[in-house]
Design brief:
Blueprint (H helix, E strand, L loop, with lengths): L1 H21 L3 H21 L3 H26 L13 H19 L12 H7 L1 H11 L2 H34 L1
Helix pairs in contact: 1-2, 2-3, 5-6
Length: 175
């Protein structure tokens, strides 16, 4: 049964990725990207990675894609009536052959990836979110704090940029 779900999520992800880069209308591209992100999160569920599933749905499909669509609607782009770019049919066959070759190489690869140092029983008892939290707050606390400082700087910068036009608008109206 897992194989059926994997085939579904993988096939829809590939089709949605192709539609994301080939559709002409930016909002349609955003909806195809949403489909892609949600189906990739389904692949995380199949891997028993609930934390990555939640991050994928909340951060990427939720926040970043909504921001992307908001900017697209704010720009009010004029679009062409065609759905696909006119030169894409010439690249479909080489791209499909290249994708099949890469898939063949990945399936023949002798490398399984790097194994973690936590035993599988500890992860099953506490859950993968607990294991990620313990690893993040013990071995990688400095990197976690640095990212927090960067995010704080980004928030302060966004506030300063949001206040700047109001200050300039008020100064311009006094003249």
């Amino acid at each position: 049964m897992v194989g059926v779900f994997f085939a579904y999520f993988a096939l829809v992800s590939i089709v949605a990725a192709a539609l994301t880069v080939s559709l002409r209308h930016p909002v349609h591209c955003g909806l195809a990207l949403l489909t892609l992100l949600l189906h990739v999160s389904g692949l995380f569920v199949l891997l028993n990675a609930e934390f990555l599933w939640a991050v994928q749905v909340i951060v990427y499909a939720g926040a970043i894609l909504v921001l992307y669509l908001f900017v697209l609607m704010l720009l009010n782009l004029k679009t062409d009536e065609r759905y696909f770019h006119s030169s894409y049919p010439y690249f479909i066959v080489p791209a499909a052959l290249g994708s099949l070759y890469v898939l063949f190489l990945l399936l023949q690869s002798p490398f399984d990836g790097v194994k973690g140092d936590a035993p599988a029983t500890a992860i099953l008892e506490g859950g993968d979110t607990y294991a990620v939290g313990i690893k993040m707050f013990s071995d990688h606390i400095l990197q976690f704090e640095i990212v927090g400082i960067f995010l704080l700087g980004a928030i302060i910068g966004a506030i300063v940029l949001a206040k700047a036009p109001k200050a300039m608008g008020n100064a311009g109206s006094k003249r």
